[in-house]
Write a structure and sequence with these properties.
The complex is a heterodimer of chains A (about 190) and B (about 100). Chain A is mainly alpha-helical. Chain A has one domain. In chain A, about 80% of the residues lie in helices and about 0% in strands. Chain A starts with a helix and ends in a 6-residue tail after the last helix. In chain B, strands 1-3-2 form a three-stranded antiparallel sheet. Chain B is about 55% helix and about 20% strand. By secondary structure, chain B is α+β, with helices and mostly antiparallel strands. Chain B contains four helices and three strands. Chain B has one domain: Orthogonal Bundle (Arc Repressor Mutant, subunit A). The chains are: A mainly alpha (about 190), B alpha+beta (about 100). Chains A and B meet through helix 1, helix 4, strand 1 and helix 5 of A and helix 1, strand 1, helix 2 and helix 4 of B. Strand 1 of chain A pairs antiparallel with strand 1 of chain B, so a sheet runs across the interface.
Chain lengths: ~190, ~100
């Protein structure tokens, strides 16, 4: 085989591997977005009915969500014909974020309600990186919105307002771009 | 001085498979077959050769009721591919000088 032919094959195959399967990334945004809304809503209801100690158990649902997410990721990787380097990179970013969020939850007795804006900042950073890797602008705009809402939250004296801003950040900066991505078409 | 080209990679289909897998994390047999335009039989034989040389990792699983073959490039494979490309460049450079 001629050397030129070898280089041509390599070039052709590099182009053939450039598939843009990004639509499936949206499913994780929908899952975590809706889970966050459910958890915060349940927390608010329980806080106003049975009181704080019981209401705090609701946050444990995030751990169940994490376990389900890992299971779903593995299943999804098996079902897709190809797993790109981007998929793996993004999964690593969110794994780091999950550890960061767990650390913040662990420090909640010290941080108090300031934990929620901090969690929103961490989510915004990961959403920004995810958007930059996928070249998907709604994630970048969503992350900027979450940064703004988190900044405002730090100055809010009421727990309910902080929770409200957190939910608003998740819905507008995370869930909405997730829905937009799910409605996109993959370039196959 | 020409560097010798890895005979395992210096074959059209095997080189195509390695070039494809260099750019993805893992891929199904069917996807590789579609992208390379090879026949299933020929592709199986070439994948087996690359796997025996530890250039590829092949996992056979089930996707529902159907068998599924997943291929992934190994560190040895990545190194061999990089070396092959380097040698190729060496050939081209000498020719154009």
């Amino acid at each position: 085989m001629e050397t030129e032919k070898s280089l041509q094959i390599i070039e052709d195959m590099i182009n053939a591997s450039k598939t843009n399967y990004k639509r499936h990334h949206g499913i994780y945004f929908l899952f975590w977005g809706y889970l966050s809304i459910i958890v915060v809503s349940l927390f608010m209801i329980l806080k106003n009915t049975v009181g704080m100690p019981v209401a705090n158990y609701v946050w444990g649902l995030f751990f169940l969500g994490f376990v389900f997410n890992i299971y779903q990721m593995r299943r999804s990787a098996r079902e897709r014909p190809v797993v790109s380097k981007i998929d793996k990179m993004v999964a690593k970013v969110w794994l780091g974020v999950s550890i960061g969020i767990a650390t913040l939850f662990g420090a909640s007795p010290v941080l108090g309600w300031m934990m929620l804006p901090l969690v929103l900042v961490v989510i915004a950073i990961a959403t920004y990186i995810h958007g930059a890797i996928l070249s998907y602008k709604p994630f970048i705009f969503g992350s900027i919105l979450m940064f703004i809402l988190a900044s405002i939250s730090f100055y809010m004296p009421s727990i309910d307002v902080v929770l409200g801003l957190f939910v608003a950040g998740i819905v507008l900066g995370y869930l909405l771009p997730g829905h937009m991505l799910r409605n996109e078409k993959d370039d196959v | 001085m020409f560097k010798s080209l890895d005979p395992l990679l210096h074959s059209q289909l095997r080189l195509a498979v390695m070039s494809l897998l260099m750019n993805v994390e893992q891929a199904e047999f069917v996807w590789i077959k579609e992208k390379t335009g090879a026949t299933a039989g020929n592709l199986s034989v070439q994948l087996d050769k690359l796997s025996k040389a530890k250039y590829l990792e092949i996992n056979k699983k089930f996707k529902g009721k159907y068998p599924q073959t997943l291929c992934k490039i190994t560190k040895t494979g990545e190194k061999a591919f990089a070396e092959y490309v380097k040698s190729l460049k060496n050939y081209i450079d000498i020719k154009t000088d």
